[in-house]
Specification:
The structure is a single chain. The protein has about 200 residues and is an alpha+beta fold. About 25% of the residues lie in helices and about 30% in strands. It has helices at about 45-55, 70-85, 130-145, 160-170, 195-199; strands at about 1-5, 15-25, 35-40, 90-95, 95-105, 115-120, 150-155, 170-175, 185-195. Helix 1 (about 45-55) packs antiparallel against helix 2.
């Protein structure tokens, strides 16, 4: 297992792209020569952006589709906001197929917050720490760009898997509200001090 820094023709390494190559002797690995190829990037073409937003609408790890009944409207709005740079995305690829996406932005009302808007990982990519890697890099990129004091996100209160995931990543439960008013249950609001990321 190892990391490869991708280099350009002039030998420089772009800061925004990491390629992670794993070699596996497992008979369950479906790729030839038992290798898995992961790439995480925040640089993508408009076609890849379209594909990433479509990916958000597919099966998602941890999140039942009925938890967010207006998710299609949100995804369409997010597509426009990504194109205008109001929101940011980091995409995880395996053999050039999208396996994960994180969407984040500076909070629209309170500029001292970075807001993680969506973290989606393809269910068959579970257990490879893709969600953790995407979350961490959204935090780091958001800190560099927006200098927030806090990072926030929300999830359904009944979603215990995402609660354990966020608590493991040092988020604290800050409140419980029905944020969306769509009769789909209460939401937990999570918050993390940026200083925790610098340790």
């Amino acid at each position: 297992m190892g990391f490869q820094l991708l280099t350009m023709a002039n030998g420089e390494c772009p800061v925004n792209c990491i390629k992670w190559v794993l070699t596996s002797s497992s008979p369950y690995c479906k790729y030839s020569q038992h290798t898995m190829d992961f790439k995480f990037t925040n640089e993508y073409s408009m076609g890849r952006l379209d594909e990433a937003v479509s990916f958000l609408l597919g099966p998602r790890l941890w999140i039942p589709s009925n938890d967010y009944p207006d998710f299609l409207d949100w995804a369409q709005k997010t597509h426009g906001e990504l194109k205008s740079n109001a929101k940011r995305a980091i995409i995880a690829l395996s053999w050039n197929d999208i396996v994960g996406v994180v969407i984040y932005q500076r909070h629209k009302k309170d500029k001292s917050y970075l807001e993680i808007k969506n973290l989606t990982v393809r269910p068959d990519a579970r257990g490879r720490y893709i969600a953790s890697f995407l979350l961490r890099n959204a935090e780091v990129e958001g800190m560099k760009e927006f200098s927030p004091q806090f990072i926030t996100c929300d999830a359904k209160a009944k979603n215990l898997e995402i609660m354990h995931f966020l608590l493991k990543h040092h988020y604290k439960i800050y409140g419980k509200h029905d944020l969306y008013g769509l009769s789909s249950g209460e939401d937990l609001v999570y918050k993390k001090r940026v200083i925790n990321l610098i340790k």
